[in-house]
UniProtKB/TrEMBL annotation:
PROSITE patterns: HTH_LACI_1, HTH_LACI_2. Residues 2-57 form the HTH lacI-type domain. The keyword Transcription regulation applies. Keywords: DNA-binding, Transcription, Transcription regulation. It comes from Micromonospora antibiotica. One of its GO terms (molecular function) is DNA binding. InterPro entries: HTH_LacI, LacI/GalR-like_sensor, Lambda_DNA-bd_dom_sf, Peripla_BP_I. It comes from the Bacteria. This is LacI family DNA-binding transcriptional regulator.
Amino acid sequence: MATLADVARRAGVSPATASRVINGSSKPVADNLRERVLRAVADLRYVPNAHAQLLARPQRSVVGVVVHDVSDPYFAELTRGLQRVATDHGRLVIICNSYRDPERELEYVEMLRAQQVAAIVLAGSGYHDATFTARLAEKLAAYETTGGRVAVVGRHEHPGDAVMPANTDGGRLLGTELLRRGHTRIGVVAGPQVLTTITDRLDGLRAALAEGGHPLPAERIRYADFDRDGGARAAGELLDAVPGLTALVALNDSMAVGALTLLRARNVAVPGQVSVVGFDDMPVAADVTPALTTVRLPLVELGARAMTLALGPAADRPRVEVLPATLVVRDSLGPAPD
């Protein structure tokens, strides 16, 4: 079995430097030295001594959470669940907003690792970016090597513990219900194309429409910012470019609220002329006029389960939990007009 001295010798560094890297010390280590140590750990299949690690670092009482934007109602609900479980475990939560900037996300992971947090939870969509995904996986693997724990919410690409919302199923539910009510000319108000969550939700919607004999053409999809203003802008573009739409599917509720605002400004009756549906079932969905039909995801539970996995006993293999989506029908959805 390899020892710390073996790792240091293989990497060409001092045992003290190897220890700093492996134990997640806050003392600075040059990037090239860090990479050599981590490569040696992988080559020698070195397993750190848990007792030695406890002696080498203080008790970890803080957990780090990286979200896209905690002011977004989706992430506010997720964070409620995350914080509830962390508090029950006597842990303090550091919340980092990446604002959907992959580089900032990488920086936060490195900063949290330097702070020797007990666990890191990444909450929110992954990105269609192979280079970023590989760099993130490398940083998370290095953190886990030092005894840290990682869990993710809504990401396929991390090979560890994950809690997944049933986004594709939710898209299918919307497509099936729209067809049942006679809607075939449907436009989609989508978020940023780089987000894997958008792909998942759109895949489910497309599949349901195609199975019903009404494939969704690309010209009926508009990608925009994942917020109210983006929803209004995308809805306006669709109505101008594709006359005769009877329904708009917004891939989150904030965008749906923007679409409702745009339709009201144009004196388009909802649902009399155009139905509008959303995704997530934010608290505001029941309060807007007309009340929004949407897909409900158990967001607080998603956050709670992710933190439970991150702070609970480690498993021999990655655990993936999928929480279901349900359709909530309200006043914004009606039959297709004649």
